[in-house]
Amino acid sequence: MSERLRFVLAARKHKATFTSLCAAFGVAPKTGYKWLSQFEAEGPGGLKDRSRRPKSNSRSIAPEVAERLIELRQELGWGPKKLVVELEKERRWEVPAASTVGELLKRRGLVNPRKLRMRNRQPRTQPLRHADKPNAVWAMDFKGWFRLGDGTRCDPLTVTDAFSRYLLCCKGGTFGVGGAGREVWGELVRAFREHGLPEAFRVDNGQPWAAPKGQLAITKLAVQILKLDIAIERIEPGKPHQNGRHERFHLTLQETARPPERNMRAQQQRFDAFRRIYNERRPHEALQQRTPADVYVPSRRKFPTRIAEPDYPHCFEVLTPNQWGLVTLRRHQYFISVATRGERVGFVEVEEGCFEVYFCKLLLGRIHTSHPDLGLVAA
Questions:
Q1: Coil, helix or strand for 196?
Q2: Strand partners, 355
Q3: Residues 219/206, Cβ–Cβ less than 8 Å
Q4: For residue 259, what pLDDT is reported?
Q5: Distance (Å, rounded) from C-alpha 379 to C-alpha 95?
Q6: Where are the domains positioned within the chain?
Q7: Between the chain's N and C termini, which has fewer beta carbons within 10 Å?
Q8: Domain 126-295 - what CATH class?
Q9: Closest Cα to residue 294, out of 182, 144, 153, 134?
Q10: In sequence order, which ranges of 231-280 are alpha helices (DSSP H)?
Q11: pTM
Q12: Which among 231, 209, 211 has a CA at the least distance from the CA of 142?
């Protein structure tokens, strides 16, 4: 106090420049001007140290707002950013920042600390780059199975739109046992009738969309999908990150199995409730905090009442594999696939004695009639 008072009195006498006076007292000119202003406004008492406590707390939340946030957290299990969006929809609260909500959840013990881990960042892959609109790519997979209360195994079949993240199908069942292609096809038909047809499916290399044996790895389910003019994109074996959007969704779906329900009927009711909230209420950060229902629109390609047989150009030779998947071409038999038995398969000669084999628009491989022992060489 005495040093500050000496400085102010010396400054008021104007016997030295203000800059040199500040240098003599070892203070910055900004501090010197502050002391001089405080003295002129309040006298010697203005030179006392003042509290550095903020006049207002930017992280304070009104009690009623805090309680509403806690209710939403317990009901929905969402993070701070999504809770802020949900609170804004109610239009009756002063909405705090997401960071402030995060601190509130930590104080209330509603956040489990994350374990830090090194991430192996993988580059994006080409097939998903064209998912630039709804229904360009649908992702399909089974979530990891779990046991229900009655001991039944539950393999949830999930289908999402890769662009809007819209959950098109979430069906519990025992699909993972033996492939269950017929049951999966039934669920896909329901989705097709409700939402229309996509341009492509994004799947892994497991059953029932890929056969575990045979060089073509084509299944009866894949044949039915191809006949609807829907392309099938398979990720590379052992690289689930190539279908990363759908895999990440499965982490969110885990909340429906904590804990599992007592039976399949109750578990399906839980899936249905989750689907409504996920599509219509839960905002998505990649969609600028919009919900999938705000972005998704049904496909203009409707599911036909009758699935047409594959049609090929006039230059193609069309053959039908028998019950063992064999066709006869130029007096020799070739194995195509058991999945294509009874279906129309197209053969076109691209070079002398070299035929490309197609099912719908999918190139299966090539046959060299001069070397029939090679059989069908997969593409």
A1: coil
A2: 349, 367
A3: no
A4: 92
A5: 57
A6: 2-47, 63-107, 126-295, 317-378
A7: N
A8: alpha beta
A9: 134
A10: 244-253, 264-280
A11: 0.75
A12: 209
Rounded CA-CA distance 67/72 in Å is: 9
72 within 8 A of 82, measured Cβ to Cβ: no
Q: Which residues of the chain have pLDDT under 50?
A: 122-127
209 closest CA partner among 188, 239, 240? 188
Counted residue by residue, the chain has a size of 379
Rounded CA-CA distance 231/242 in Å is: 17
pLDDT for the residue numbered 55: 62
Extended beta strands in the chain, E state: 138-142, 146-147, 153-154, 157-161, 167-171, 200-203, 231-234, 317-319, 326-329, 332-335, 345-351, 354-359, 362-368, 376-378
d(Cα 220, Cα 178) in Å, to the nearest integer? 13
**Token pair 């049609």: residue:** 311
**Residue where the block lists tokens 């972005």:** 295
DSSP string, 277-340: HHHHT--BGGGTTB-HHHH----SSPPPSSPPPP---TTSEEE---TTSEEEETTEEEE--GGG
